[in-house]
Structure formats: structure tokens, C-alpha cells
Amino acid sequence: MKHDDLSERWANLLDLTYDAAATGDAGKARRMVELLVHLAEKETLFSTPKLSELKKGKCWKGGNTKAKCPTHTTEHASHYFVAFTYAAIVLREHMNDEEKALLGKYIERSYLDYVRPVARLLAKGSGFYSFAHNGLGVLAYANWSNDTRLAKSEIRRTAKLISRLVNKKGYIDNNSYRGVRAYWYHTLGVDNMLGFAVVAREHGVNLFEDRKVGPKLRALADATLEGGVDLDKFMSKGNRGTKHSRNYSTNPKDARPHMHQLAVSLPMFLIREFGVDVPTAPKYDRLVRRETVDRFVGFNAACYYASREHPG
């Protein structure tokens, strides 16, 4: 199954879950619980190779956009497992003890075999991608298992990662330097970093006010505004990577000169957290209308802020 096909399926799972919760429809909620139970009983995606079972290979080898990336299959499976955990958390009050136990075993195995290993692998490199490099997945597992120590530890770990990856000008190491798709990947990274920060705040840690991370998050907003207003200026910083290690293209045919269309929440994150209104390209506006749930962070900013303003 291709990445888009899989992510569209788990996005639909989340969309239906959130709709059941928002409308208070107990019947919808029960049907969604039954779907989760079915997926767990079938051990869905546990046949996916673990990181330890993969053959060696390099993504974008030599700047080739079509080069096979062995880790992507495992990464994308881990994103499904994160989305599954999100859904289970939202629907937990509609489950009986037997269902909670069954889903708990499935979630624990998916976390230990896929979510955590991918998070640890990605943290060793550069760049910042889906589900906050799976940091959001770790927080989801901590929520499900009521492990506050794990949540605090993950927030500290990802905060250090953000601090390391973002420079004073708000550019992200790797994301913001990826050739003709630099702004596209930059906004992907920003969406994930801000998404992680708002979830961390729900765990009692305000990264927006953190002495080290706070200024980096603000710089991200400024750099994103720069790219939205003057893309040429944003691109003038250049690219990074050698002939054999670069993961970017300079071919105009590969260009994505706009905010990433899957970054559904990014414009609102920027407005609500920093008062920064970034102009978006017509192509982004057209493509983003096709989306439901933000497939980078697993929830939408509009719903997040509405829940804060009208809890319960």
C-alpha cells in the first residue's frame, strides 16, 4: 500500500472518531470502538518489517527523488499506529474493560516495535517530520498508559531536538535547505514542531515560554512568514548536502513553491500563537480543501483551540 493510501485511511479513521466525539453520538462512538477492536484482533500492520529487519539503503540517494527509501514503509506504518492510539484515547470512555485490555496490548506492541524505535532513529539525524518525529506518538502512548514520567521525558527530549535543529533565523536543519522544495518541507517541519508544542502544553509544559525553545519557535514563525511573502529571499540561504548525501533536488520540475498542503493546522497555529498571518499560495488553498485531519500531527488546530475555549 502506498503512503498516501495508508495515511488517507487513518486520517479517515480519526475524522470519524473526532466527529463521534464532537457530536456526542454514542452510536457512532460504539461503531468506531468496534472498528478499532477489529483492527486489533487482525493484528493490522504487524506484518510490516521492523527497523531491525530492513535492508540497508538511503533515501534520496544522490539527490534522486525516486530512490527507494527502506525505512519509509516502517515509518508510515508507525504513523498509522499513532493515529490508532489517538482514536483509542478519544473513544476510551465508550469501551468496556475487555476492549480496553485488547486494545492496550495492541497499542503497547505497536509502540515497542514501531513507534518508539522510529522516534529514536529519527532523533539521531537531521530534519523534523511527521508526528513530530514520532514524539507525538510517544506522548499518545504516555497518555494511554497514564505514564506521566514518560510524557515529561519525551517533552524534554523533543524540546532539545527542536532547539538543536532550528537556528536563530528560524530555519530547520535539513527541512529548510531541500532545494526547490525547501519552503514546502520547511512548513512541514514547522507544523510538526508547533503541533508538538501545543500538545506539550496540555501536559503542563509550555515550550512557547521556554527560555531556549520559545525563541526558536518564534523564529520559525518569522521564517515561515518570510517564505510566504518573499520566497526568493527564503530560498537565497542555499541548500545543504553533498553529491552522495543530499536529499534535495534543484530540478524546477520537482518544485513545490508553497506551504505544504498537508499542513492543515499551520496557518492557525501561527495566528493563534504568534499573531503571524502568513499569506498562502492559491495552490495550497486549493489542495488543502481536500484534507480533513492534519496528517502531520493527527488533529486540527481549529478543533484544538475550540476545545480549549469550550472545554467539555
Describe the 3D structure.
The protein has 312 residues and is an all-alpha fold. It has a single domain, classed as Chondroitin AC/alginate lyase (Glycosyltransferase, Alpha/alpha barrel), CATH 1.50.10. It has 13 helices and no strands. α2 (26-41) packs antiparallel against α3, α3 (70-91) runs antiparallel to α4 and α4 packs antiparallel against α6. The longest helix has 27 residues, at 97-123. It is globular, with a radius of gyration of 19 Å. The model has no long low-confidence stretch (mean pLDDT 93).
Q: Sheet bearing the most strands, described? A: none
Structural class, please? mainly alpha
Q: Give the distance, in angstroms, between the N- and C-terminal Cα atoms.
A: 38 Å
What is the mean predicted local confidence, pLDDT? Answer: 93
CATH third-tier fold name: Glycosyltransferase
Which range does the strand content fall in?
Answer: under 5%
List the uncertain runs.
Answer: none
Q: Give the proportion of residues in helices.
A: 55-70%
Using only C-alpha atoms, the radius of gyration works out to 19 Å
Number of domains: 1
Counted by DSSP, the helix tally is 13
CATH class: Mainly Alpha
How many strands?
0
Based on the coordinates given, report the CATH architecture. Answer: Alpha/alpha barrel
What is the element string, with H for helices and E for strands? HHHHHHHHHHHHH
Principal-axis shape? globular
Name of the CATH homologous superfamily: Chondroitin AC/alginate lyase
